[in-house]
């Protein structure tokens, strides 16, 4: 039970600050009650009145019913414990002060406060909106019909007490409530979890759904979001998705970031045979010992069960216990000996074989070399899904490659191309209609436009901003040099320059660039 108590307090012109209603009764001590002394004797009546108490109102009354200048603000405080055995609590409140000649002393101050449990175990920001909304609603009711000030019900009785009682019960049990107050007003509150800010989305990232998005789509969704959804399949990069959907790259990144915030997608790397993967320290404690995970992997990577259409990974809420599911209707009801993929010779690959395949991935060993050594075992295994499974689970990580320019080449003058036209091209290159060919999984799409561009690249020139023209290859080299500082991975360079990894490596060997060192980390 997250909400330990709810109480309504006000400033009474005759009695001063007082608690009018509290749920549950006896959870808030008033000034007339005294908590039992630690280690001393106490009577039965004192024990009954204070055994379930959470705090003493008199010690914090000046913060709950404050002076007028502090009203209208959210106030959170941790009251001093009644005894050494009293659990720690957090109070969230939003005091309101109304001024009118209708009230004695021309003002009316009231406050509805929530008493929460240990703040270290609670999503406190989600309850702040509850306190604010409750305070604003009660203020409106008071201004309309003097709902609070005209209430003369005894303590812990009447409609205000019932409202607090239902609010606490519904939020603790259902995380939402819809409580009718009168014919015109209803209290509608829902607890929304506070999620961390999503990671930055880059054009070379590959989004993969973690939910069945087709069951959630609504026609009122953002138009860009509806256009890009069909192309999010765990293969296309963000930039390619934007091109396929004919959408702006910035809007596409915002949509994917929105999906990422709510945990609807994962961000992966572009799959390539030139990629390098290695197992993490968690490998020995996860799939190497978990037979159920081995079976789950077999279902996910077995090409006999390859799903059609859009692909998704089912991931649970815990970041430390990532789970994927490649199950299709064809896997339901299968026996354990039927889920294992077959080798090229027709033998079944069991859990030990799957673990061995993952163990063969290491530093300095590309996917192409890994496949060449294990071609027989990988005959009926989807390699992309095999790698993706390990990355999502967390026992496999990508080793990126970076380039550092150590010596200038013969096109030192190209460094001067950073002015005028180059800056324009740099700002506008995101709107290009050509697709990234940086990785093997993207090369089959729309080769013609890119090949046509490169076929005539010797005849294509760029202005240098000084009335002259810069040859296209020099222009490309000048842009490439900007990425050779060791902070840009190959995926980023290939995506931004729209070249393949093979072309990038050839360019790094050219004399025009100079000397460059490639590092892996």
TrEMBL record:
Keyword list, A-Z: Membrane, Transmembrane, Transmembrane helix
Which residue ranges run through the membrane?
Answer: 259-279
Q: Which GO terms describe its molecular function?
A: GTPase activator activity
Kindly indicate whether the keyword Ribonucleoprotein belongs to this entry: no
Q: Which stretches does UniProt call biased (Basic residues)?
A: 452-463
UniProt superkingdom: Eukaryota
Gene Ontology biological-process entries: negative regulation of TORC1 signaling; positive regulation of autophagy
Listed GO CC annotations? GATOR1 complex; vacuolar membrane
Q: Where is this region: Disordered?
A: 449-470
Q: Does the keyword Transmembrane apply?
A: yes
Q: Record's InterPro entries?
A: NPR2-like
- Family indicated by similarity: Belongs to the NPR2 family.
The protein's name: Nitrogen permease regulator 2
């Amino acid at each position: 039970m997250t909400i330990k108590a709810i109480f309504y307090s006000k400033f009474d012109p005759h009695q001063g600050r007082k608690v009018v209603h509290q749920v549950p009764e006896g959870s808030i001590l008033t000034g007339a009650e005294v908590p039992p002394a630690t280690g001393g004797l106490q009577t039965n009546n004192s024990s009954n009145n204070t055994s379930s108490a959470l705090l003493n109102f008199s010690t914090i009354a000046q913060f709950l019913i404050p002076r007028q200048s502090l009203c209208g603000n959210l106030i959170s405080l941790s009251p001093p414990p009644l005894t050494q055995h009293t659990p720690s609590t957090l109070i969230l409140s939003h005091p309101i002060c109304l001024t009118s000649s209708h009230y004695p002393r021309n003002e009316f101050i009231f406050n509805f406060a929530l008493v929460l449990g240990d703040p270290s175990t609670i999503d406190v920001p989600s309850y702040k909106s509850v306190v604010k909304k409750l305070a604003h609603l009660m203020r409106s009711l008071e201004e309309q019909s003097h709902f609070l000030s005209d209430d003369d019900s005894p303590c812990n009785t009447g409609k205000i007490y019932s409202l607090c009682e239902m609010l606490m019960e519904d939020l603790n049990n259902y995380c939402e409530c819809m409580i009718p107050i009168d014919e015109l007003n209803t209290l509608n509150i829902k607890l929304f979890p506070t999620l961390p800010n999503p990671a930055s989305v880059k054009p070379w990232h590959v989004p993969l759904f973690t939910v069945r998005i087709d069951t959630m789509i609504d026609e009122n969704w953002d138009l860009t979001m509806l256009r890009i959804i069909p192309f999010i399949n765990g293969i296309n990069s963000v930039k390619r998705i934007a091109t396929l959907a004919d959408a702006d790259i910035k809007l596409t990144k915002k949509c994917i970031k929105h999906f990422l915030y709510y945990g609807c997608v994962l961000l992966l790397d572009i799959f390539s045979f030139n990629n390098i993967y290695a197992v993490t320290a968690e490998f020995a404690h996860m799939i190497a010992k978990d037979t159920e995970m081995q079976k789950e992997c077999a279902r996910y990577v077995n090409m006999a069960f390859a799903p059609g259409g859009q692909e998704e990974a089912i991931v649970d809420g815990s970041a430390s216990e990532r789970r994927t599911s490649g199950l299709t209707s064809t896997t339901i009801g299968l026996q354990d000996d039927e889920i294992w993929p077959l080798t090229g010779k027709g033998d079944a690959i069991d859990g030990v074989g799957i673990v061995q395949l993952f163990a063969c991935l290491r530093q300095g060993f590309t996917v192409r070399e890994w496949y060449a050594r294990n071609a027989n075992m990988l005959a009926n295994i989807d390699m992309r899904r095999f790698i993706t499974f390990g990355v999502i689970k967390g026992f496999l990580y990508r080793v990126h490659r970076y380039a550092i320019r150590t010596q200038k080449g013969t096109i030192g003058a190209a460094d001067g191309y950073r002015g005028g036209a180059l800056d324009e091209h740099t700002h506008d290159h995101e709107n290009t209609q050509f697709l990234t060919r940086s990785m093997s999984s993207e090369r089959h799409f729309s080769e013609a436009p890119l090949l046509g561009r490169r076929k005539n690249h010797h005849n294509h020139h760029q202005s240098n901003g000084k009335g002259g023209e810069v040859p296209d290859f020099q222009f490309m080299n000048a842009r490439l040099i900007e990425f050779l500082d060791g902070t840009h991975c190959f995926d980023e360079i290939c995506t931004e320059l729209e070249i393949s990894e093979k072309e990038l490596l050839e360019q790094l060997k050219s004399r025009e660039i100079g000397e460059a060192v490639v590092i892996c980390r």
